[in-house]
């Protein structure tokens, strides 16, 4: 058996100029399947780990998925706001333990700005109920003295090179500014609240969630920077200096959404019903797990389509292996006949052709896995910065191994066809010259 393996390997190597393209085709198909499966798994894991310990997300009545994506993942368009009065009444519900209001819509160099309260750092959790940890500094004070204080995520600090005491300005709206530009915009840029700069007082430890790519400020601070803005534009000649803004009433009237924690999980449907039938305004209460389930049902069609395309690529690669082996079989009639003449039995010829195909398939799969890991290693920083998806460079998933095994099995089965044909060739047929 060992000699047959050696002969099969050397025979495939001697025909490497032809088989190398089959190997490349198989490697690309394997890399595609391997990468897609890892992406599918890590995207789901990343999304599911982004919020933990939150029983309900409450906002103005809209699509549950839209509310979830924007309030937690900062993806999509700004939904309609809800009144702060409704948030306060919700906090008074007997089953509610805590409420954290959120206000979104502004940005800093493309990073979303989240207006909230210090309670956000106490109650918001990710992963397996892991709390947020301040790596440096402290949370903003949420007082008039600390009005222009900001806490930044780990990715913001790393990408922009910020440290404690850094002065930053916020942009009006969700603009995709260049993250690599570390300077502040010119004063003439009317999209920037340059007249009211913020001071970085805290830097959060990395979480692998959208928190890393956000800037947290107080709700009062957002009110202050918008005092002299109307309908999304600054009032002509009506600029209010930063110090003067402290003299105004900065209590927010509206927020984007609210995170709700309950005293008992058993009360979630009761509180959700209270929110959904709230008479003062149209609200909706969304359970994060249910909203994520809807997201996966939407993405499931795309996932299946991508896997189907990848499987089709793998099938074409396997068929090309059959075509190449069959095309070369006629040229190898004499070679196989010589093997028969020196004592090789038909089963040896069958095994030789099968092992050759298996060698080629194994080489393609191994190269494909290597390409997939190299590509993922190169793409991980970009995915982390742009989409917040962290690819886990760890042991292969069982589903990845199953896909690689399926490609190997397909290659083995595909090799049996040409091998069976070679098995049926007679010794005389191989030694007789063809006219």
Walkthrough of the structure:
- There is one protein chain.
- With 435 residues, the protein is an alpha+beta fold.
- The protein folds into two domains: 2-46 and 295-431, no CATH class; 56-286, no CATH class.
- The protein is built from 14 helices and 16 strands.
- A hairpin with a 3-residue loop joins strand 5 and strand 6 (130-131).
- The longest helix is centred in the C-terminal third of the chain and has 42 residues, at 288-329.
- Mean pLDDT is 79; it is low at 177-190.
Top keywords for this entry?
alpha+beta, 51% helix, 435 residues, 14 helices
* Helicity, as a percent range: 40-55%
Beginning-to-end CA distance, first to last residue: 36 Å
Q: SSE order, as H and E? A: HHEHEHEEHEEEEHEEEHEEHEEHEHHHHH
Number of strands: 16
Uncertain residue ranges: 177-190
What's the number of helices? 14
Mean pLDDT: 79
**Structural category:** alpha+beta
Number of domains: 2
Kindly provide the radius of gyration, computed on alpha-carbon positions and rounded to a whole number of angstroms. Answer: 31 Å
What's the overall geometry?
Answer: elongated
What assembly state would you assign to the polypeptide chains in this entry? single chain
Beta fraction of the residues?
A: 15-25%
Largest sheet: 10 strands, mixed
């Amino acid at each position: 058996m060992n000699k047959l393996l050696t002969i099969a390997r050397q025979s495939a190597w001697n025909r490497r100029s032809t088989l190398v393209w089959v190997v490349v085709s198989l490697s690309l198909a394997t890399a595609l399947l391997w990468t897609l499966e890892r992406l599918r798994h890590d995207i789901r894991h990343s999304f599911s780990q982004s919020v933990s310990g939150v029983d309900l997300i409450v906002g103005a009545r809209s699509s549950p998925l839209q509310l979830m994506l924007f309030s937690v993942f900062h993806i999509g368009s700004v939904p309609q706001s809800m009144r702060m009065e409704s948030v306060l009444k919700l906090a008074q519900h007997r089953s509610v333990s805590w409420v954290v209001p959120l206000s979104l819509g502004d940005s800093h160099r493309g990073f979303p700005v989240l207006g909230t309260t210090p309670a956000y750092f106490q109650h918001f959790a990710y992963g397996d109920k892991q709390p947020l940890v301040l790596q440096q500094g402290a949370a903003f004070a949420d007082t008039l003295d600390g009005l222009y204080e900001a806490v930044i995520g780990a990715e913001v600090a790393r990408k922009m090179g910020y440290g404690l005491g850094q002065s930053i300005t916020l942009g009006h709206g969700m603009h995709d500014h260049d993250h690599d530009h570390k300077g502040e915009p010119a004063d003439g840029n009317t999209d920037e609240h340059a007249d009211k700069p913020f001071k970085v007082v805290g830097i959060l430890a990395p979480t692998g969630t959208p928190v890393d790519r956000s800037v947290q400020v107080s709700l009062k601070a957002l009110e202050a920077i918008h005092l002299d803005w109307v309908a999304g534009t600054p009032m002509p000649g009506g600029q209010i200096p930063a110090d003067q803004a402290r003299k105004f009433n900065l209590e927010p009237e509206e927020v984007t959404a609210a995170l709700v924690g309950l005293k008992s999980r058993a009360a979630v449907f009761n509180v959700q019903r209270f929110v959904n039938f709230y008479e003062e305004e149209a609200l909706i209460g969304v359970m994060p797990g249910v909203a994520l389930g809807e997201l996966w049902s939407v993405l499931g069609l795309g996932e299946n389509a991508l896997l189907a395309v990848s499987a089709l690529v793998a099938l074409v690669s396997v068929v090309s292996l059959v075509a190449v082996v069959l095309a070369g079989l006629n040229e190898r009639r004499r070679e196989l006949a010589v093997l028969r003449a020196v004592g090789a039995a038909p089963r040896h010829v069958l095994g030789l052709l099968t092992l050759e195909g298996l060698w080629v398939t194994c080489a393609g799969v191994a190269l494909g896995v290597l390409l997939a890991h190299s590509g993922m290693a190169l793409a991980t920083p970009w995915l982390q910065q742009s989409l917040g998806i962290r690819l886990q460079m760890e042991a292969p998933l069982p589903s990845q191994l199953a896909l690689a095994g399926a490609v190997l099995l397909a290659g083995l089965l595909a090799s049996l066809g040409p091998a069976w044909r070679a098995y049926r060739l007679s010794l005389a047929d191989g030694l007789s010259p063809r006219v």
